[in-house]
Specification:
415 residues, mainly beta, 24 strands, 11% helix
Length: 415
């Protein structure tokens, strides 16, 4: 069974594009600036574009760099974001794990995971400005074994600290007015563990190590409104069929590497192992036909349908620079998404319809792996669409297409 792609009007496309616009545009801006590390020797390293530490929970550490991105404004919000994965029995002990902006020696705003026993996986935000300080907890939980998305947004009037399970729908944890020392431009960006004083306590004889990984650290200030230069390279397509072909080429994943059926992972949300490397043995290539007639692979049929069978699907995404993308996944009833071996998102039983998730891409090639489970009838459909985290170019393009081809999209939909 394969699904046919429905013909969509340009109006529907534009509405879909505007939904993606809820997130301010971000792009990596730290790759060329070295990190200043304060940590035990050898504990912190850069790996695949991420800042990674392995050590004991009582050890505070930080990786920081100077920031000169401006103060942020209503017209051009300053957005700083990261993805945090904390692993180990004591990963939330002693110190909070935070994404921070600093304005001086004793002025900072931070968002991350609080100190706790690891059972409370709500986001946490805090601020200090001299003797004044405050904190707040998020309402929603992030599932165990899954990273938490962190974001600080600075506009003319407020500083907002936000967290998210998927990097698409955000919860505002804390909002501060831009006043006093916090009214100016932040001068320091940092990730790490530690906020104020903490007692370094651990049960005697416990020598276990934990890990913390900050991926996709990015900072950008871009105008909120659509700019005319977004269409500076626009050329009118040769007919509406060319419009559909160009739109398809912008994001639908056509080529996959598949493997399965495979044993059920011992930990469905765990990190990838050697058998899940798409460059290894036992994988086959699969491709959707161009033209948009089909937009989902029937993985179960291609690999041998097995009721409730488990399969792997992988795609490699090249990028000249580190940046964020959003993936839309559809067709699968149960799945886990991993990026370069790191668990990113596990589907919830109550989810229905397409699922969107933000993905940090490193400079070079990023591997996105999907673990999926077939239905009791052996059906395992999978479709994926990619889009840049900045939705403005696509929205501008759709608006221009609507002007150049009035009525043609509606005519095709009716036909």
């Amino acid at each position: 069974m394969r699904l046919q792609r429905p013909v969509r009007t340009l109006l529907a496309l534009a509405l879909a594009g505007s939904a993606w616009a809820a997130e301010p545009a971000t792009a990596a801006a730290t790759a060329s600036t070295p990190w200043s590390i304060q940590a035990p020797a050898g504990a912190v390293r850069e790996q695949d574009g991420a800042i990674v530490m392995t050590g004991r929970a009582e050890e505070a550490w930080s990786a920081a760099q100077p920031l000169a991105a401006g103060p942020g404004s209503d017209a051009a919000p300053l957005v700083v974001r990261a993805l945090l994965l904390a692993g180990g029995r004591h990963a939330q002990a002693v110190h909070p794990s935070l994404l921070q902006l600093g304005w001086g020696d004793d002025q900072a705003v931070a968002v991350g995971l609080p100190v706790g026993d690891g059972k409370d996986r709500r986001g946490w935000a805090a601020w200090r400005a001299g003797a004044a300080h405050g904190e707040a907890m998020a309402r929603s939980q992030v599932p165990a074994g899954q990273p938490i998305h962190l974001r600080l947004v600075l506009t003319s009037r407020v500083i907002a600290a936000e967290t998210s399970r998927d990097g698409v729908a955000w919860e505002r944890v804390l909002e501060l007015p831009r006043s006093g020392a916090l009214a100016g431009a932040p001068t320091r960006l940092a990730v790490g563990r530690g906020w104020g004083a903490a007692a370094a306590e651990r049960r005697k004889g416990d020598r276990s190590e934990d890990s913390w990984r900050f991926a996709g650290v990015a900072v950008q200030a871009l105008p909120s409104a659509l700019a005319a230069d977004l269409l500076k390279d626009y050329r009118k397509p040769d007919g509406y069929d060319a419009v559909r072909a160009e739109d398809e080429a912008r994001g639908r994943v056509l080529r996959w590497r598949l493997r399965g059926p495979v044993p059920h992972p011992a930990r469905a949300a765990g990190a990838a192992d050697a058998a899940e490397d798409p460059a290894g043995d036992g994988w086959v290539d699969a491709e959707l036909p161009p033209g948009g007639a089909e937009d989902q692979l029937d993985v179960g049929r291609l690999l041998g349908a097995k009721p409730n069978g488990h399969y792997l699907a992988a795609v490699r995404i090249p990028s000249p620079v580190a940046r964020w993308e959003q993936l839309q996944i559809e067709g699968v009833r149960e799945f886990t998404v991993l990026v370069d071996g790191m668990p990113l998102l596990r589907s919830a039983p109550e989810q229905r319809g397409p699922v969107r998730v933000a993905v940090p891409l490193r400079a070079g090639t990023t591997t996105v792996l999907v673990r999926l489970t077939a239905t009791p009838g052996g059906v395992a459909l999978l479709g994926m669409t990619r889009a840049d985290a900045d939705p403005r170019p696509r929205i501008a393009w759709l608006g221009r297409i609507a002007l150049d081809f009035p009525g043609e999209a509606e005519a095709q939909a009716e036909g």
